[in-house]
Amino acid sequence: MKKIKLIPLIAAFLSVMTVNSYAATVTSGFFGIDDYPPAGKSDDDRAGYSYVRNLNGELNALLNPSHTYTNTFMYKDSQAKRLPFISKANGDPCTLFGFSGHGYPGKGIGGGPLLYDGKANKTSLKFKHRYVVMYSCNWLWNGGSKDELRGTYRTFNGTRLQMGFGTQMWLDAREGIAYGQRLMRETVGSAFVNAARIFQPQNDKDVVVKVVGYTGARMDYITNSYPAAPVYNGRNDGQFKEHFNCKIKGTGKKITWP
């Protein structure tokens, strides 16, 4: 009788160990723009590259050598152009893909990230990467419209979660450090939201930070291995949701951190 009782217990234990097993590697790919053209036009400058550089640095320091971490590409400023971005965004999956720079709202030709040489329309993006960070204004904006929300869902081609903002946001390169640090002890989504809570109050307007994706991905950790999410096909809305939709009050006051 004792042996019979141990069998389901062992099976349950092995099941938990399988779910929580560490990924063999964590890979990343980033696009970031500090200086938009024309050169020297300060109101068009953003610390986009500095954000992804900081995030990459934290991941490298914290994941190596305990885990294997590899940055497979890093496009900066004039390298971060529209066609390479679309190619990499829709290309072979990394664990974490990120963009930081300007962004515009809308699911169609009006919406999408602004690269060095123009905007990549949201309709042209079909992410396979496990996780996508769009550290820019408006990527997850939907204006309360289900059709606009489906415009975001249509960019899911295996991606489990997308992190971003539903409004104008405050770009602070230090947030990349805070996000990277939290990824080692928090879930992928909550780490992004909690890093935003530190820096986004610097904006003079309220900021909405969001995490959208596969319903089963809320508790994903960066160091664990998970399968690709279902591809959004227009008929499986129930498999996707907004996991986080948090309003952060803007104070306009700059912070000292850490």
| Major β-sheet profile | 7 strands, mixed
Low-pLDDT stretches: 1-23
Strand order of the largest sheet: 2-1-3-7-8-9-10
CATH topology: Rossmann fold
Radius of gyration: 19 Å
Query: Count of DSSP helices?
Result: 6
Q: How many distinct folded domains?
A: 1
What's the β-strand tally? 10
β-sheet strand percentage: 15-25%
* SSE class: alpha/beta
End-to-end separation: 58 Å
Helix content: 25-40%
| CATH top level label | Alpha Beta
In the CATH hierarchy, what is the architecture at level 2? 3-Layer(aba) Sandwich
Question: Could you state the order of secondary-structure elements as H and E?
Answer: HEHEHEEEEEHEHHEE
User: What would the principal axes of the Cα set say about the shape?
Assistant: globular
What is the gist of this entry?
With 258 residues, this protein is α/β, with parallel strands linked by helices. Helices cover 28% and strands 22% of the residues.
Topology:
Layout: H1 2-19, E1 25-32, H2 48-63, E2 68-76, H3 82-89, E3 96-100, E4 103-104, E5 112-115, E6 118-119, E7 131-135, H4 146-153, E8 161-165, H5 174-182, H6 188-199, E9 207-214, E10 240-248
Parallel strand pairs: 1-2, 1-3, 3-7, 7-8
Antiparallel strand pairs: 4-5, 5-6, 8-9, 9-10
Helix pairs in contact: 2-5, 5-6
